[in-house]
Amino acid sequence: MAGGKELEMQLEREAKAFQTIQKEIQKNHQLRQQFKTQLGENELVKTELDILDDESNVYKLIGPVLVKQDLVEAKANVDKRIEYISGETKRLDGALKDLERKASEKRQEVMKMQQRLQDLRSQAAK
Asked: Where do Polar residues bias regions lie (predicted)?
């Protein structure tokens, strides 16, 4: 059963690769959740800024200090953040699809190797 040892080592490598992909998927989900939270917060800010009239005072927190900011500039900054966050979310969605495809392929490989190893062991037992 010399081929069996080699197959076991290959199976172990593939299983580790599968686990690595699973960790990347989990990290992707965490990042996507953070971006969705930020998107919600920024959309809420945008809604609040849209309610204000042109004469309203807007302040931006920079460190421990509130600094007066132009309303138009504040709206533009929030729009840019929303655009950036939306773009990152789409990028992460694409990466997630790719990772899920890779995970599925690795899972199939691992299952095939496990089956071959089991077949080798049952043949060796005979």
From this structure: 115-126
Burial class, 115, CB count within 10 angstroms (exposed 0-12 / middle 13-18 / buried 19+): exposed
User: What are the pLDDT digits (tens) for 97-119?
Assistant: 999 999 999 999 999 999 998 88
Asked whether 86 and 53 are in contact (CB, 8 A), the reply is: no
Read off the pTM: 0.78
The residues, any chain, with a CB within 8 Å of residue 105's CB and separated by 6 or more, are none
Domains of the chain: 2-125 (1.10.287.370)
pLDDT in tens, 34-56: 999 999 999 999 999 999 998 89
- Written as six digits, the tokens of 26 are 């989990």
63 Ramachandran zone, left/alpha/beta (phi>0; psi -120 to 50): left
